[in-house]
Amino acid sequence: MSINDCKIIELPRIPDARGNLTFIEAGRHVPFEIKRTYYLYDVPGGATRAAHGHKTLQQLMIAMSGSFDVTLDDGFEKKLFHLNRSYYGLYIAPGMWRDLDNFSSGAVCLVLASEFYTEEDYYRDYDVFLKAAREKRR
User: Fold this and answer.
1) Could you report the per-residue pLDDT of 110-128, keeping only the tens digit for each?
2) What CATH number does the domain containing 111 carry?
3) Domain span at 112
4) Given 29, 52, 54, 82, which residue is catalytic?
5) Based on the structure, what is the number of domains in the chain?
6) For the stretch 17-43, what's the b/e string if a residue is b when 16 or more beta carbons lie within 10 angstroms of its beta carbon?
7) Tens-digit pLDDT profile for residues 68-95
8) Residue 29 catalytic?
């Protein structure tokens, strides 16, 4: 996979004077079966989250409230995404390193994941990630 496989997905939006509604359906709006959901919140100003990669995990990341930046890295190229709308999700393909920063006050990051948590799927060391990413492209 490459950075070009990662993209913003516009989610359905039903506008209403009483408040908008957005829904997400696995297989229709998310290109994987959702096995885990988690969210980040109360991130202190100036803090960075993530700083890891995944071997096989796919994710959809959504700014449910506020905004933050996601920098994705496939070992060859980096790309910055600014998330600030609850009806846009960032699809993150397998094999990407990710860094999250620039959280606004009150930001909430929702993550839908294709797999249950398993430590074996993580790259925690950037140099190990780079080596694996470059070996895959040979």
Assistant:
1) 999 999 999 999 999 999 9
2) 2.60.120.10
3) 3-136
4) 52
5) 1
6) eeeeebebeeeebbebebeeeeebeeb
7) 999 999 999 999 999 999 999 999 999 9
8) no
